[in-house]
Each structure stands twice: as C-alpha cells, then as structure tokens.
Amino acid sequence: MRPYVALLLVLGLLASAGSLPSAVRGDEVKYVGGTIATLPSGTEGQVDSADAKVLRFHSSKGKFEIPYDTITSIEYGQKAGRRLGVAIMISPIALLSKKRKHYLSIGYKDSNDVSQGVVLELSKKMPRLIITVIEARSGVKCEYDSEEARKHVNG
User: Fold this and answer.
1) Angle at 89 between CA 26 and CA 13, to 5 degrees
2) For residue 86, what are the contacts with CB-CB under 8 A and spacing of at least 6?
3) What are the two backbone dihedrals, phi and then psi, of residue 117, each rounded to the nearest 5 degrees?
4) Within the chain, which residues score under 50 in pLDDT?
5) Which helix H or strand E contains 119, and what residues bound it?
6) Do residues 27 and 57 make contact, with C-beta atoms less than 8 angstroms apart?
7) What is the pTM of this model?
8) Which residue, 131, 132, 109, is CA-closest to 120?
9) Which residues touch 39 (CB under 8 Å, ≥6 apart)?
10) What is the pLDDT of residue 79?
11) CB atoms within 10 A of CB 46
12) Largest CB tally within 10 Å, which of 19, 29, 43, 117?
C-alpha cells in the first residue's frame, strides 16, 4: 500500500508543478509538431494573424511563417483527457470531468511546391478567431473532426 501512495504523491506533485502535459492557456499556442525542422515539438509561443498575407508563429526557440495563399487545408479537432493530476491532489470525482485540448492542423505548400504541415494546440478561446481569419484570408474552409468541434467554433 505504501508504494502506491508514494506513487500517487509523486504524480500529484508532478501535475501541480506542470511536468505532466497540460493544455495551453491564454494567448499561448503550442507547436505540437509538423514539418518545421528548425522548431522543436512542444514549443510554446504566439500566433500573429495581423498581417493580411502571412500567418506567423514566434517563440524564444524559433519561428515560422505561412503565407495564406499557400494554405491547402485547415482541420480543427478536440481531444478530451481526464484530469489525473487534479484527481490525485484533490478528489477522485475530478476524473469524471474532462479537459479538452484544441488542435489546429494547417497544410500548405512551401516555395518549392512541396506539401508541408503544422499542428498547433490552441487555448480554448482561440479557435473561433484564428480559424475565421485563416479561412477568410486563405479561401480554404476548415474541416472539423466532430460536430462538437464545429459547434465550439461556430457557436
């Protein structure tokens, strides 16, 4: 019994210290992965959609730009995970609630006409704005992985 309790305490401390994967918050965006070789997966940064021609991602570890006219696909989905850290630290009832992660995949062609792609994790307040901007500037309609994801963006 004692090793089990110790394991739960360690997991709880890791969760509270942020060592377990967590959803991004506020204006942060996480580069989950893709074909940007110069940027490590899991890099957190900011997305800048203010330029009418180019979508930009920048962080302390690197940056990338995607011209809107090169975008070939936009996909949005949500993945729900159980709140293990909260359940361990506070209450097992928290296992009944879900924490959603919001993923945006963008496919585009580089300057050599080669297909490229990025997957970004967005905070829950960002999908509606960023998808609307990308759709309007690229002329490409977003595809959704579920009706629930579509409702989150379109209301």
Assistant:
1) 75
2) 15, 94
3) -160, 155
4) 1-21, 82-91, 93-95, 97
5) strand 115-122
6) no
7) 0.74
8) 131
9) 31, 59, 61, 62, 63, 64
10) 82
11) 13
12) 29
Question: Which residue type, as a one-letter code, is found at position 71?
Answer: I
Helix, strand and coil percent figures for the chain, each rounded to 5: 30, 40, 30
Q: Based on the number of CB atoms within 10 Å of its own CB, is 145 exposed (0-12), middle (13-18) or buried (19 or more)?
A: middle
* Structural domains of the chain in order of their starting residue, each with its CATH number: 24-83+98-154 (2.30.29.30)
* Residue indicated by tokens 């070789």: 37
Bridge partners, residue 65, by sequence: 56
- Structure tokens, 151: 């409702």
Tokens 């490229």 correspond to what residue?
116
Tokens at residue 104, please? 């945006």
Q: Residue 98: what pLDDT?
A: 58
The Cα 109–Cα 63 span in angstroms is 17
* Residues 75, 125, 47, 101, Cα dihedral to 10°: -50
Strand order from edge to edge, sheet including 43-48: 62-67, 54-59, 43-48, 29-34, 115-122, 98-109, 71-82, 142-144
